[in-house]
Amino acid sequence: MRGNYFLFAAATGFGIAVAISSHRTMAVTGALIVFSYLSIKNKSLFLLLALVLTGAGAAAWAYVVDGQNETMLHKEVDTIHGQVDDVLEMDGDRVSFFLQLAEGKERVQVFARVVDEEALPAFADLSPGHECTIAGEMRTPRPARNFNAFDYQTFLYEQQVHWTFHHVQGEDDMTCRASTDTGTTSVKQWRHTGIRFIEDVFPGEIQGLAMALLFGERSHMEAETLEAYQDLGIVHLLAISGLHVGLVSGFLFFFFIRLGISRERACELLLIILPLYALLAGAAPSVLRAVLMSCSVLLCIRFRVPLHPVDGISFAFIGLLLYNPYMLFHAGFQLSFAIAFTLIASAAIFTRAKTRFRQFMLVSILAQVVSFPLIVYHFHTYSLLSLPLNIAFVPVVSVVILPAVWVLFLLSILVPFLSSVWLLLLEKMVALFHAVITYIHQHSGLILVFGQASGVWVIVMTVLVILAAILFEKGRTSFVYAAMFMIAVAAFQYFYPYFDSQLRVTFIDVGQGDSILIELPYHRGVYLIDGGGAITFPQEDWQEQEQLPDPGRQTVVPYLQSLGISHLDKVIVTHGDYDHYGGLFAVVEELKVDTVLYPHTDIENPEVGRFLMHAQDQGAQLTFVHEGMGWSVDAFAFHILHPTNEGGGESDNDQSIVIDAHLYGMRWLFTGDLEEEGEKRLIKDYPELSADMLKAGHHGSDTSTIPSFVAHLSPMAAMISAGENNRYNHPHPDVMQTLEEAGVQIFRTDEQGAVRFYYQDRSWHEETMIDEE
């Protein structure tokens, strides 16, 4: 069986997927096909039985673990007591951390808001191991509120966290004290101390990078820089993985040998140190994989037992999944093992390369090809510059930056005065490095948007990658045909939206704001009406957050990319309120926009002018529109009813663009923040105007959606876009009463999340992200 334990690792993965994945049928079918083929190939019914039993055992284990993943708490709990479990995240007046409760094994995600600047030092001093008693409010974690969006509730569930606890700092409602450290807590405390040391000693430009490379902590990376790493496909440079563990292991082994310690004792010491290093580095899947594999190798060296590298990674895979079955669904886990296994299994390809440079090129190309299906599946985009950037930057990070960060970190502790000059030099180097990455990210335009891929597509692509690699290893030119077929399958995913015959209108949940996406069949027209925008209020300097909420970057752009949308024909900015145009900064930066429509009115707000100039700088054509203008595509027509050519009204809201859209026999009236004066003007000037679907003006405020307007339009349904628990108490009870008395069906983003309407089988259908109870 030497070298074949990967079959049992695969069986373990299939079994866990069957037990706790939503793709059970696909997992069962895939497992039976693969294992039956292998058994027939090896002429071994015993092998098939062993694999089925392994998968069944893994499924049973995962089922038990998932069944025990329950909470003992309830919503009425208003005070919790436990131990801080990890490094705190602080941003302005916001603090978050995990609390391991004193009773039971349950953890709770704590969010605290500091209301007094004098209390900040007390929070900053909190570290893993501190015992805290906190008063506040227990809440269920927020589920995904938009289609294809990140599900925070599931993310916490897979960490066996079922509640978030919300605390507003007061005088006597939170008390903490240091406690006796246990073994694991001590290591977490060291990690906390190391991160705080970097924060205090290292220059600002390299703090985030140093924390990521040394302790696996990315929260201090600048948002723009981190986004560039992610979009360009080089974010793995910030992840602690095999390279880092290899450097640490190699250095320590050489150091121990130079001290006169025997190889056996050196291996034993590393078997103790490496697991501690995994905890110090944040225990991410890539770290755990690398440490487990290193420990397997060290055990074999120590006891002189031969170990096939494929078996080593298989044991690590099985061990981690038995420890935590939910890791199987972690993108980092999947990418780490897929790339590592492929590189190990393809060793014969690399040995044929005559030079180190050719080996490095082959490794880089194979890693990119193998990771491609998983990257598209999880992130919906892929950068064409990923391969050349990895070839260019991996040596820089691995040979220069990473060793320099390690050396300067140790020097800063042992001989501070020697490190200061070198830290400044490293800061200049990292600043240049990040400037190059950011510039490429902003100007390359070589990021392909594939949309959300299905599990079937990932499996097909993976099979083709494996087939192409096997044929290439055997020196057969037919691998070219496999590669071409792989490109064809990738192209199918990329161009799929242009074969989609469905028409969709989606009201995106952007909180207290508006954002509406209209997709015509076959993408003959893709229009975005507004993009949300988080309104901020005056704060003191100490309260200001570095990572401000941005619905455009965090919600609208990811949703559009999940649909395979990289190009918008029109972006309609209904008027100059930030909660309508603020998120569009990210939209015009990340997507190609042909035309931006803005009402034909005077622009008095300089921030609106800044956005319109920014959109032009990004290549969009700016068009000022008024009543009488419009456009049509095939049988779909869009008429602009407001504002008038002289201006829309006295208030900014009453200058909103109003669009009367005719889509498959259904009339839609999109009103922006139109208020009473504008509604009365439409009643007067358009006596025959009607609407099947009304987008209620101004988020359901009592300044809009007056009874006479509703009676005039006689809509079947109305859509209210408002933020959950918003401070304005939108929608207003009077508006709800008006709509209910008129017999109008009401949809609300604050209660139902995103709402999507689609035309299929000659009729309209709707779906909401959150089902009403």
TrEMBL record:
<dbReference type="InterPro" id="IPR036866">
    <property type="entry name" value="RibonucZ/Hydroxyglut_hydro"/>
</dbReference>
<keyword id="KW-0812">Transmembrane</keyword>
<dbReference type="Pfam" id="PF00753">
    <property type="entry name" value="Lactamase_B"/>
</dbReference>
<feature type="transmembrane region" description="Helical">
    <location>
        <begin position="6"/>
        <end position="38"/>
    </location>
</feature>
<dbReference type="InterPro" id="IPR004797">
    <property type="entry name" value="Competence_ComEC/Rec2"/>
</dbReference>
<feature type="transmembrane region" description="Helical">
    <location>
        <begin position="360"/>
        <end position="379"/>
    </location>
</feature>
<keyword id="KW-1003">Cell membrane</keyword>
<dbReference type="InterPro" id="IPR001279">
    <property type="entry name" value="Metallo-B-lactamas"/>
</dbReference>
<feature type="transmembrane region" description="Helical">
    <location>
        <begin position="446"/>
        <end position="472"/>
    </location>
</feature>
<feature type="transmembrane region" description="Helical">
    <location>
        <begin position="327"/>
        <end position="348"/>
    </location>
</feature>
<dbReference type="InterPro" id="IPR025405">
    <property type="entry name" value="DUF4131"/>
</dbReference>
<feature type="transmembrane region" description="Helical">
    <location>
        <begin position="479"/>
        <end position="499"/>
    </location>
</feature>
<feature type="domain" description="Metallo-beta-lactamase">
    <location>
        <begin position="512"/>
        <end position="724"/>
    </location>
</feature>
<keyword id="KW-0472">Membrane</keyword>
<protein>
    <submittedName>
        <fullName>DNA internalization-related competence protein ComEC/Rec2</fullName>
    </submittedName>
</protein>
<dbReference type="Pfam" id="PF03772">
    <property type="entry name" value="Competence"/>
</dbReference>
<dbReference type="InterPro" id="IPR035681">
    <property type="entry name" value="ComA-like_MBL"/>
</dbReference>
<dbReference type="GO" id="GO:0005886">
    <property type="term" value="C:plasma membrane"/>
</dbReference>
<feature type="transmembrane region" description="Helical">
    <location>
        <begin position="45"/>
        <end position="64"/>
    </location>
</feature>
<dbReference type="InterPro" id="IPR004477">
    <property type="entry name" value="ComEC_N"/>
</dbReference>
<feature type="transmembrane region" description="Helical">
    <location>
        <begin position="391"/>
        <end position="414"/>
    </location>
</feature>
<dbReference type="GO" id="GO:0030420">
    <property type="term" value="P:establishment of competence for transformation"/>
</dbReference>
<dbReference type="Pfam" id="PF13567">
    <property type="entry name" value="DUF4131"/>
</dbReference>
<feature type="transmembrane region" description="Helical">
    <location>
        <begin position="269"/>
        <end position="288"/>
    </location>
</feature>
<feature type="transmembrane region" description="Helical">
    <location>
        <begin position="234"/>
        <end position="257"/>
    </location>
</feature>
<keyword id="KW-1133">Transmembrane helix</keyword>
<feature type="transmembrane region" description="Helical">
    <location>
        <begin position="421"/>
        <end position="440"/>
    </location>
</feature>
<dbReference type="InterPro" id="IPR052159">
    <property type="entry name" value="Competence_DNA_uptake"/>
</dbReference>
